[in-house]
Amino acid sequence: MIDILPIRTQPTTASRLASVDFDHLEFGKAFSDHMFAVDFVNGEWQEAQIVPYGDMAVSPANSALHYGQAIFEGMKAYHQHDGGVALFRPLDNWARLNSSAERMCMPTISEELFMNGLRELLKLDAAWVPSAPGSSLYIRPFMFATDGFIGVRPSETYRFMIFTCPVGLYFNKPLRVRFEQKYVRSAEGGAGYAKNAGNYGAAMYPTKLAQNEGYNQLIWTDASQHQYVEESGTMNAIFVMDGKVVTPALSTSILDGVTRRSVLQLARDMGLTVEERKVGSREVMDALAAGKLEEAFGVGTAATIAPIATIGYEGHDYDLPVTGAQAFSKRVTAALDAIRTGEGADVHNWMVRI
Ligand code: COI
């Protein structure tokens, strides 16, 4: 199989590492020295390459640009307590990339090709993994159609790539969010569970309207009744209500988040009751009014665990109680940080060392 060919590597002769201000990292602005790329042609993945990060040429008729056959992942590598580097749950991202690929009529990728590409890229750019608390190396695997053809049909050729960025916190303060009850992110049977580019582009306009009103993100509700929580911006949403950890059940319209899954596992490990079910916007607001909504937060790879301070609902803003040191969101953040940096026991074998 072509998959297991060694990766042709062209190291940079002009590292940009020294030009990056690691004390003031902004999400997604600094890119590490190298990128991984492999093309799918004639029904198979070709020889993979690692080359200096940089622009590339595409046909103006590229079908990803016209019809949106483009998918991506977001994952992270962490500086380890003992000086090494480790990836957090990379196989979960690999599996989700393939599930997105199937939904978008794109070829899947083998575990070997994905993991070899990641490992080699990270070995070459290991010095880019930041070590300050809260920072990490964000990894962006993605795939797009490369046919120069504007007939509407799945492309016959594709490129899979990975680049990385040293990042700090995505949100630096608790969020103001509001329930969205007009626009829809995704409907049951749609492609909301896939990480395809169009889901994000289509969310920008309603999100911008909310941002113009002073909110950071939306909490999307279901497409048919606008009653049930879907997800929040680029994150899954979790609530602590009446002592239980409650989150919308997965469906074809919700992203199966790796952080969501990890937080729910840690909640169960802590002995908490976890409910994955329909969560009504009215239920959340009633719980808040009755003093039973203890916490609400978003969870995602980029956002990590992002506490929600205020929820807008039907034209009014409601503040959540201020959380204490024992809040679940704080305890689970600390537990995840300990696993990710190698300071805590990794009982679920989530970390993969480079
Ligand atoms: C991630 O959390 O990795 C995401 O995909 C969000 C991103 C669009 C910033």
UniProtKB/TrEMBL annotation:
The annotated pathway is:
Amino-acid biosynthesis; L-valine biosynthesis; L-valine from pyruvate: step 4/4; Amino-acid biosynthesis; L-leucine biosynthesis; L-leucine from 3-methyl-2-oxobutanoate: step 4/4; Amino-acid biosynthesis; L-isoleucine biosynthesis; L-isoleucine from 2-oxobutanoate: step 4/4
Q: Which cofactor does it need?
A: pyridoxal 5'-phosphate
* Matching CDD domains: BCAT_beta_family (cd01557)
Pfam families assigned to the protein according to its UniProt record, in alphabetical order: Aminotran_4
- EC number per UniProt: 2.6.1.42
Tell me the enzyme class: transferase
> Where are its TM segments located?
none
User: Keywords assigned by UniProt?
Assistant: Amino-acid biosynthesis, Aminotransferase, Branched-chain amino acid biosynthesis, Pyridoxal phosphate, Transferase
Q: Which reaction does it catalyse?
A: L-isoleucine + 2-oxoglutarate = (S)-3-methyl-2-oxopentanoate + L-glutamate; L-valine + 2-oxoglutarate = 3-methyl-2-oxobutanoate + L-glutamate; L-leucine + 2-oxoglutarate = 4-methyl-2-oxopentanoate + L-glutamate
Annotated GO MF terms: branched-chain-amino-acid transaminase activity
User: What is this protein's function?
Assistant: Acts on leucine, isoleucine and valine.
Task: Give the family from UniProt.
Answer: Belongs to the class-IV pyridoxal-phosphate-dependent aminotransferase family.
Entry protein name: branched-chain-amino-acid transaminase
